[in-house]
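Render this sequence as a predicted structure.
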Amino acid sequence: MKQTLNHYSQSFKQQVLDDYFQSGMSQAGCCRKWNIPLTTLSSWLRTCTSQEKSVSLHSNSIHMDAKDQALENLRVENERLRREAEYHKLRVAGYERLLEIVKQEDGIDLLKKDGAKQ
């Protein structure tokens, strides 16, 4: 079976390469999306005429992914700390209520310090 050679315009190649670097998808996924052979994309990556732009775009996408991940980690940590603070507030309120009940029922004020002048 004879294979036909496809010739792609430079703008199409650049569009595919930009999409590949910005999306962070795999080479195979990019090839499926753009309906091109994997070997073609691999070849374009090797012989890319705008290597600086490709490296720059790739670095930016990695940097943005890292920033997004850091932001999400901070959101999760913030939510965990909020829940923990709320738990401690409830716990303190419970202890205060317990001290009030002991004082009312038994007449013992547990908040007074031993040896304090009265």
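Summary. Helices lie at 10-23, 27-34, 38-46, 51-106. The mean pLDDT is 80.
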